[in-house]
Amino acid sequence: MRGNVITLKTVTTDPFIIVSQEDGEGIEAPKVLGDIFESVAGAVFLDSGMDLTKIWGVYYRMMKPYIDHYSVNIPLNPIRRVFEKDDKAVFGTCGDMCACAICVRVRYVRVRHVWR
């Protein structure tokens, strides 16, 4: 833990923990998934008489396998992956022109007779 904030690799059963916005930087989830998540949470919240522990009970049982998996295998957005592989990578905009140059250094890895 950093201060009073839970890191992404920490899971708690306490429904009142607030994770800071910076802990989620670089993690992508489809927008529709977030919309469904919020809709179900809102419905459970209202149906339970605004009881946050009920929401956590419903979501924890439903999401536990995913929480366990993604706590260990955190999905990163492609730009963050590039920066973690090569901190010298530079990204910029093309400005008014659509032409651009892309330089990529590739290292081939052979795994079970398959080239990637």
UniProtKB/TrEMBL annotation:
Organism: Desmophyllum pertusum
GO cellular component, one term: cytoplasm
GO MF terms, alphabetically ordered: deoxyribonuclease I activity; ribonuclease III activity; RNA binding
Signal peptide start-end: none
Keyword Hydrolase among UniProt keywords: yes
Keywords per UniProt: Hydrolase
GO biological process: apoptotic DNA fragmentation; pre-miRNA processing; siRNA processing
Domain named RNase III: residues: 26-49
Keyword Hydrolase among record annotations: yes
UniProt-recorded name of the protein: RNase III domain-containing protein
InterPro entries in alphabetical order: DICER_DSRM, RNase_III_dom, RNase_III_sf
Highest taxon, organism lineage: Eukaryota
Pfam families for the chain: Dicer_dsRBD
